[in-house]
Automatic annotation (TrEMBL):
PROSITE patterns hit by this protein: ABC_TRANSPORTER_1, ABC_TRANSPORTER_2
Residues covered by the ABC transporter domain: 2-236
NCBIfam families assigned: 3a0106s01
SUPFAM superfamilies: P-loop containing nucleoside triphosphate hydrolases
Protein name: ABC transporter
Pfam families named in the record: ABC_tran (PF00005)
Keywords for this protein: ATP-binding, Nucleotide-binding, Sulfate transport, Translocase, Transport
MF term (GO), any: ATP hydrolysis activity
Species whose genome carries this gene: Novosphingobium lindaniclasticum LE124
BP terms from Gene Ontology: quaternary ammonium group transport
InterPro entries registered for this protein in UniProt: AAA+_ATPase (IPR003593), ABC_SmlMolc_Importer (IPR050093), ABC_transporter-like_ATP-bd (IPR003439), ABC_transporter-like_CS (IPR017871), P-loop_NTPase (IPR027417), Sulph_transpt1 (IPR005666)
């Protein structure tokens, strides 16, 4: 179990994290989700032992590891800035964490080799061990980075935007594959992303961060359906903010005669499985987005329609 307790971190005068508390159970897959600069990477680096907090503690399985450096925490990490070693073969890259161990803890050469081969199988790159990173695709390289992180049999796997630089299709395939691998290997993993779709699809629980604070910790369903703050409701999924403070999801609107708001339709297009209707409130021009079921006929551009909310939320601090 990982317990992060009241972590505070400043860079000079800049407060990057304010009193972060977080508990992670063995086997969980956790997403740290938030906009750029919200402190996700800083928190991940503190958990890894690559960065140290000003205040607070990190516990692994009940042990206080707050002052223990990265090399002794037994964490595997895939961070973009720790790219593969270009002059080493794929197999040597994977074996790296084992070969640099002190002699007393280093497995025999043959064993290291066998382990690298086994990991190549795990990440589905069998037969590519003799290649150099430059001879692989971006997605393959990320899988090698993952195999390298797994070689030390980490108790915790940390991933910082692991698929950030890849195209959408490869990203999606790798996501699914990572989710399976996490389960198969019984890992506890934390990954950083600013992509809400990635967080909702992969994580058992999502930690939504903003300005160095945690706004909400919950299952994907909870953060989407029951956002704790106005910020979460905007950042996770889409939300219309009405002039009177109501926050309403596009799919929670219906076009209905009994509705109280009138909308002038500016645009109608297909979005996934529904029609997306974009328009403006007649009252004050507020931009409104509405999803209409794909099986229904959408309004036409230029129409004025009346809308009603099936579900709405009001937050005490709507300006977030
Ligand atoms: N070494 C550093 N020195 C000074 N400021 C830093 C340092 N590292 C991070 N910061 C600042 O701390 C804040 C949090 O940074 P962090 O990298 O944790 O955010 P993030 O949520 O991971 O953002 P991104 O998604 O852009 O990577 C930012 O404002 C950043 O500029």
């Amino acid at each position: 179990m990982i317990r992060v307790e009241n972590i505070t971190k400043r860079f000079g005068n800049y407060p990057a994290l304010h009193g972060i508390d977080l508990e992670i159970q063995p086997g969980e897959f956790i997403a740290l989700l938030g906009p750029s600069g919200s402190g996700k990477t800083t928190l991940l680096r503190i958990i890894a032992g690559l960065e140290f907090q000003d205040e607070g503690h990190v516990h692994f399985n009940g042990d206080d590891v707050s002052d223990i450096p990265v090399g002794k925490r037994n964490v595997g990490f895939v961070f973009q800035q720790y790219a593969l070693f270009r002059h080493m073969t794929v197999a040597d890259n994977i074996a790296f964490g084992l070969t640099v161990r002190k002699a007393s803890r280093r497995p025999a050469k043959a064993e290291i080799k066998a382990r690298a081969q086994e990991l190549l199988r795990v990440v589905q790159l069998e037969g590519l061990g003799d290649r150099y990173p430059g001879q692989l695709s971006g997605g393959q390289r990320q899988r090698v980075a993952l195999a390298r992180a797994l070689a030390i049999e980490p108790s915790l796997l940390l991933l910082d935007e692991p698929f950030g630089a890849l195209d959408a299709k490869v990203r999606k395939d790798l996501r699914r594959w990572l989710r399976d691998l996490h389960k198969q290997m019984g890992l506890t993993s934390i990954f950083v992303t600013h992509d809400q779709e990635e967080a909702l699809e992969l994580a058992d629980r999502v930690v939504v961060m903003d300005h160095g604070r945690i706004d909400q910790i919950g299952t994907p369903e909870q953060v989407y359906m029951e956002p704790a703050t106005a910020f979460v409701s905007h950042f996770v999924g889409e939300t219309n903010r009405l002039p009177d403070g109501r926050h309403i999801r596009p799919h929670d609107f219906e076009i209905a005669a009994h509705g109280r708001d009138r909308v002038l339709v500016d645009n109608v297009f297909r979005k996934g499985g529904s029609w997306r209707v974009e328009g403006r409130l007649e009252e004050d021009g507020t931009i409104i987005e509405i999803d209409v079921d794909a099986h229904e006929a959408p309004p036409a551009i230029g129409d004025t329609v009346t809308i009603a909310a099936r579900r709405e939320r009001t937050f005490s601090n709507p300006g977030d």
